Amino acid sequence: MTTKNIIIIGGGITGLTAAYYLQKDIAERDLPFEVKLLEASNRLGGKINTKRMNGFIIERGPDSFLARKQPAVKLANDLGLSDQLIRNRTGQAYIFARGALHEIPQGSHMGIPTQIRPFLESALLSTRGKLRAGLDYILPRGKEVGDQSLGKFLRRRLGDELVENSIEPLLSGIYSGDLDQMSLMATFPHFLELEQRYRSLIKGLQQTMSEQKTTSQNKRGKFFSFKNGLETIVAAIIKQTGNELFHINTKVEKIVKTHSRYRIYTNRDACYEADAIIVAVPHHVLPHLFQAYDFFQPLTHVPLTSVANIALAFDQSQIKNDIHGTGFVVSRNSSNRITACTWTHKKWQHTAPDGKALLRAYVGQPSDQAIVRLSDTDMTNIVLRDLTPIMNIVGDPEFAVVTRWEKAMPQYTVGHKARIRQIKEKMEKSLPGVFLAGSSYGGVGIPDCIAQGEQAKRQAFLYLQKQ
Ligand code: FAD
User: Fold this and answer.
1) Cα separation of 356 and 345, whole Å?
2) Of all atoms in ligand 1, which is nearest to the CA of residue 16?
3) Is any atom of ligand 1 closer than 6 Å to the C-beta of 9?
4) What does the DSSP assignment read for 83-140?
5) N or C: which end of the chain has fewer CB within 10 A?
6) For ligand 1, is residue 446 a contact (CB within 6 Å)?
7) How far apart are CA 129 and CA 127, in angstroms?
8) Is 284 in the pocket of ligand 1 (CB under 6 A)?
9) pLDDT tens track for 393-422
10) Residue 48 and residue 226: Cα distance in Å, rounded?
11) Alpha-carbon gap, residue 194 to 109, rounded angstroms
């Protein structure tokens, strides 16, 4: 039997997951398949990037993943990493709005109140804003039942003030996008289901959250990382899959269909032949890779936003207003330029040596993209200017690590799901054996990317077995 070649393009967590599970199955079942992964940059892991410095563990990209979503936990277990998983420490989180830090009212779900008393007692919203949010109880169901902007949906139900002071800052931490452009159906489709079922979104959340509470009463942290940082999972995949499979510094430039196979051209002299391809790169790359196929063109209009984060190391004594909690997000209406700050040494105690503090501040709201291109010094000064009045910081940080993610956050704008579905349908007809996976398509969170990597592996196997 002739050997079939499977090429994976992109060495982020999606491509790495596909490589790991492909190689595992090939070895276990002695299949006549050969896998290679081509990665443009000089390292594997994509956005997962851990820096260890002076006893600190600094995450430059994601810092954790949701514990309740199984694919990431399963991958960690399959890799034998379960004893290295750690949960975040729980604690009060805050929103900076109306010039002060406010505790996120108890019972908030993504900034939407589900317990009335803590919400009414909070100074997060004006009386007018609270009354407007309360209208959700009596407003009729919306007429639109298809996709629409998340911002439009939430503003109609709950009013602008709740959206801008409470919901938007929390959601932008996940998507770094403009709520008024984001697709409801690609982000929180259950909000629409709840409105259709209960009429009121708050009532619907109250109902479903109380059902969830009866099944899980514990107050454990909701996120997992690893004792030595998130990159542990990348290192384990590389080690267990076999280094020779990975080709770094290999940027794919063009893919051409030749009869029933594909030829992959790269920035190097090497050209690869493939029977099946898993494409795990961001969406804006696709129209360049498949120039002969017009149906990728709509992806050129799908925006990517830029963000940056600044990790600041201090001696704990330098932070005079050491607030008990895990961090805060910033209201869109605030004049601050940071969008959030994690008190990393509290949320993830293993990340800082005893007596030290590690703060991680974020910048790059959709209306302030220019900040990401400032110099390290200018960005750090802006962050310190915003943080100092809140936390009363004295003196300079011991060091600062600035990480820019330019045009890195794919935006699931209205129509996202239909757009991706149409492209996949066209690929099935015109590019059989080529499968899409990753954060631009079916979910941005690490568990969603892992699930997509695993699914693409299954699709590639199924396809090749039918050949
Ligand atoms: P990527 O990691 O972007 O990998 C794609 C790879 O493809 C890259 O390595 C790239 O170099 C390569 N590539 C591109 N073009 C080519 C080409 N032509 N040829 C070959 N290779 C190419 N998610 C969470 O679950 N929890 C978090 O806490 C969290 N925080 C985040 C914080 C930040 C700052 C960022 C930026 C993201 C965060 N995310 C978080 C999201 C999550 O990290 C990403 O969605 C996920 O890691 C993306 O994985 P991926 O493999 O799809 O893409």
Assistant:
1) 8
2) 51
3) yes
4) GGEEEPPP--EEEEETTEEEEPPTT-BTTB--SHHHHHH-SSS-HHHHHHHHGGGTSP
5) N
6) yes
7) 5
8) no
9) 999 999 999 999 999 999 999 999 999 999
10) 12
11) 13
